Amino acid sequence: LWRGLSKLSLPMLLVYGAQSNTFRVSTARLVEQKQPAVHLTMLERTSHLVPLEQPAEVYARFHSFMKEIA
To answer: pTM above the 0.85 mark?
Structure first.
């Protein structure tokens, strides 16, 4: 994943939870370094199971992103 991340040339949205114990803020920063075009969005009061914990908010973020890139 890390080696190929900088080679991707497609719109990317990465939604992660602020309380995730597997995807931390430091990881998000590394993703940004490897792929500056990625759109990162963090959801407060959410762990690693973002779509299960906040499905409406995840939908809203993806919907907004899709409208933005269309």
So the answer is: yes
